[in-house]
Structure formats: C-alpha cells, structure tokens
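Hi F.,

I've been meaning to write this up properly since the lab meeting, where we talked about keeping a consistent format for the predictions we share between groups. The idea is simple: the sequence comes first, exactly as it goes in, then the structure tokens exactly as they come out, then a line or two of notes. No screenshots and no reformatting. I'm using this chain as the first example so we have something concrete to point to.
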Amino acid sequence: MSMGPVLGASDKLTFLLSLVPYLMDHESVSVSTVAAHFGVPAERVRDAVNLIAMSGIPGQTRQYLHGDLFDIHWEEFETNDNIVLTHLVAIDDSPRFSAREAAALIAGLQYLSSLPENADVEAIASLMAKLSRSASATPSQVVVSNTEPGEAIALIKEAVARGVQIEFDYLSSRGGHEARHVDPMRVESVDRDWYLRGWCHLRGAMRTFRLDRMSGLRVTDAPTGPRSAEALPDTLFQGSESDLEVVVELPAAAVPLLADYAPQSAGPGPADGLVRQTIRVAHFHGLKRIVAGLAGVVTVVGPPEARGLTRDWAAAGAARYDEAVPGDREE
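Output, unedited:
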C-alpha cells in the first residue's frame, strides 16, 4: 500500500499537532474518516496514532509511569479500526475558560448565528459545543431571544436592486398601525434589532423603521425617487417633538454610548463616578433595547412609568431562565 509522498520532520509534527485536537473533538472516529479529513493514506494515520500512544511527559521520577502517556482503546483500534482516546496528557492541564467566560462567548455566538449573513450555522453550533466541553465547569445557560429578519431583508434588497418602492403595515412605537410606502435605501442593525432607512411617502421625509414591526411587506412596481442613500442622516435615530424624556443613571465614561438619544446632564448621581442624564425616546417601551445593550451599566431613574415598564420587562426575562433550566421535580 502506498504511503503517499515522503514527509519531512516538520510536516510530520504539523500533522500530529493537528491530529490530536481533531481526535479530542471526536469521541470515536474511524481511521478512514481521519484519513479522508486530512487527505493522507490510512496507514499514515495508524502510524501517527501508534506514535501518539507512546508519547507523554515523564513524572517526577523522570520515568514514564502509568498515567504519564497518552492511551487509546486498543481493542477498538486493532479490531474495528476506530480511534478512541482514553487518556490525555498535559493537554488537559492547559488553561480553560471559566464557566462564566464560556457562557458569555456562547451567548455571543448565539447572537451571531441569528444574523442573516451568517449562513454557516453548523460551524457556529460546533464551536459552541467545543466551548461547552472545554470550560472548567458547565457554563450557565444564557437565553438569547431569536429573531427572523432574513426574509424581510431579502425583499428589501430586491427592491433596492430594482429601484422600486416597498409597502407594508407598520406598528409604531405608540401602538398605532399605518400603511407605509417607502423608497428603501439602507438596512442597518443595532444589537439584535434591524432597521430600514428610506424615504417615507406618508411623512414626506427620511424615516427609520424596525423590521420586526413590519407586516405584509411587499415589493411594488412603483419606481423610487431620485434620492441618494448618501443623503441619509449620519445618526440612525432622529428625534421629534413628541419624544418622551427619561432620566437614567450611568458612569460618566459610558455617556457617549447614549449619543443617539441626545443625552443632557441631569446632575450627579448618588454614588461616585455616576451621573444622571436625560435622554429622549419615542416611547417608554424603547428603553428595553437601551437597558439590554447596557446591562449592568445604565439604571432607569424616572419617570415612574418608565421604571415600572423596565422592571416588569427585566422580571419577564429572568422568568425565562426558570423555564429554560427546569428544576427537580417530584414524581
């Protein structure tokens, strides 16, 4: 049987360094599968596995004792041509993510997997599984709300490419429904929310619309006007006379994070390093996105209605963790 091209020492080392992590990620894998994955002959894989099984780190006596070497399930290897690592050396002692660090990374990956441009969700799911296995303890479960803006974004892109208007029913932040005809120009995201920016024929001005508040979205045959996306304001959110004022408390260094909400000083906070700012929002329900994006940083101080809505929303979110992680049940 051909062994393939002759490998130098550096090539053999590279193959071994790649093979060990691969075997660690697969509890049981056949020699043929490994050979196909790395593009090498099966016999080369078998030789590498035998070499791994004779590798390790000597103990305090400077001799190789039981537990100082890698080990495999020899019967599976010799009888069924399957590779199963049963003992790892030194690698298990490498620094690992804490449970909290792993949970934070997994939450970030869950967010990325929900974005339309990240089509390879299998790769993201595989990485999340690796983080769970390699953490120093079981990561805490983090609930990330799911959104499905992909279909709407595809329709908007089609309209932009054809240079035509779109129409949809829009639920405003105050709970009203209106039919809108819009010249679409740009789709942007802030945290987990997606927004359409374009010329609204009803208002006769540039407007920003949240995709999750649209329904009945349809691409029309009406051509858009001769406006350019370059005419869009630099900031995503534009204030209006009907905006509501809310007082929040946060560290002074974090105030620039609220730039879209026109923060104005409302005096120092009760603790060192905290300041109070008055911001403008279209509706008190809009505070949910601000609080979620600056969790643990910003506190809603007033008015009472704003505090109550924020408190109830946070309590509802905390209740979802009780649903996601069932406790012990009595039969």
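Notes:
The chain has four domains: 10-93, 99-134, 150-231, 244-323.
The longest strand covers residues 177-190.

If this format works for you, I'll send the rest the same way.

G.
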